[in-house]
Specification:
Elements (H helix, E strand, L loop, with lengths): L1 H10 L10 E7 L2 E7 L2 E4 L3 E3 L14 H8 L4 E7 L3 E3 L11 E11 L2 E12 L3 E3 L1 H14 L5 E5 L6 H14 L5 H5 L5 H11 L12 H12 L1 E8 L7 E6 L4 E2 L4 E2 L5 E3 L13 H18 L3
Parallel strand pairs: 4-15
Antiparallel strand pairs: 1-2, 2-3, 5-12, 6-9, 6-11, 7-8, 7-10, 8-9, 10-11, 13-14
The structure holds flavin-adenine dinucleotide.
The site of flavin-adenine dinucleotide (FAD) has 20 residues, from helix 8.
């Protein structure tokens, strides 16, 4: 495959330059006539701008392309970090580091009002929450944060109401009254979650179930139904996976990816005002627009 590609490039006199920083475009009349690469100017008939977004800059995508697009007359929709993990205020969240819940039910709260509910996979980290669900809804969390504080509530037994769960535990504790609390719950909860719940409820994990008071049981029920984490921030450009915003789509022909402003300029990938959820959609965006831009730019106009 690679040798076929190498032969094809050689046959068509294609030269690939790597490890070279592009500094900008040279314009002549209403076209780009060259690209500044270090001290050199490379003359060009067509340019495909595909410099990515400005998230995860360690990969080389630092947002340079937005400036060149703007210089070419294009509108830039404010780039913002998207698909990012969330930092949590409560220091005890780090007790849960490494815990992953495949089908967690979570609710977003703002000013004592439930805003939205979601189900999906979440992962606890040393600083807060990540995993596909959290990353997908980070945009919603960010929007809510603009209006005030946000809490993420984890419901560990979503199928039961508080009173149903309480009744279930009264019966179960009666039947297992000789067991200590940490052994009773170990079948249902991850050890780290159980330890945290008991820590927050201030209950000794070795306490036998028949010595548990009504107040202690109710504290456990309340935490099982609502374990709340206060969001301190959605992580920014350094850790977010993609950039939302970018070159406005209305100024690009979607059939060719060609600029409607500069006739020999094409766009592809994350530099565009296009983004999707996790699951390969963002890679698909860059592959599809890249294919189309490459095919269109190669055609003689
Ligand atoms: C950690 C992480 C995980 C991800 N996981 C997924 C996933 O599972 N599924 C998914 O669909 N998407 C995922 N993404 C997003 C996906 O990788 C991007 O959307 C995609 O790579 C964008 O492709 P692109 O070609 O537009 O830009 P990029 O891949 O960012 O490439 C742009 C290139 O332009 C170069 N460049 C920038 N400025 C200059 C300059 N001035 N001179 C020369 N070169 C320059 C950069 O060095 C870079 O090589 C992930 C992203 C990250 C960071």
């Amino acid at each position: 495959m690679l040798s076929t590609l190498a032969n094809y490039l050689k046959k068509n006199n294609v030269k690939i330059i790597t490890d070279a920083k592009v500094l900008g475009f040279i314009f002549s009349k209403n076209k780009i006539s060259g690209v500044k690469v270090g001290e050199k100017i490379i003359k060009t008939d067509k340019v495909i701008l595909c410099t990515g977004g400005k998230t995860y800059p360690i990969t080389g995508s630092t947002g340079d392309g937005y400036g060149w697009a703007k210089e070419s007359g294009h509108t830039i929709i404010m780039p913002t970090p998207a698909l990012a993990p969330v930092k949590i205020q409560e220091a005890w969240v780090s007790d849960l580091q490494g815990v992953s819940l495949e089908n967690a039910k979570i609710n977003l709260w703002q000013n004592d009002k439930k805003q939205k509910s979601y189900s999906g996979e979440i992962l606890f980290t040393h600083f807060g929450l990540s995993g596909p669900l959290i990353i997908d809804i980070s945009k919603v969390i960010n929007a809510l944060l603009q209006k005030g504080s946000v809490a993420i509530e984890l419901e560990l037994f979503p199928e039961m109401t508080i009173s149903e769960l309480d009744k279930k535990l009264i019966l179960a504790f009666r039947e297992n009254n000789k067991k200590d609390i940490k052994n009773y719950f170990k079948e249902m909860l991850s050890q780290k979650i159980l330890n945290l719940i008991l820590k927050l409820a201030e209950i000794n994990p070795d306490k036998k179930l028949n010595f548990l008071t009504k107040k202690e049981r109710q504290k456990i029920v309340a935490l099982l139904k609502s374990l709340k984490f206060t969001v301190s921030q959605v992580l920014g450009f350094e850790q977010a996976m993609i950039t939302s915003g970018g070159v406005a789509l209305k100024e690009i022909n979607p059939k060719t990816m060609r600029s409607k402003i500069i006739e020999n300029l094409y766009f592809a990938g994350e530099v565009l005002d296009l983004d999707g959820p996790t699951g390969g959609y963002n890679l698909q965006i860059c592959w599809s627009t890249g294919y189309l831009a490459g095919e269109s730019a190669a055609k003689i106009i």
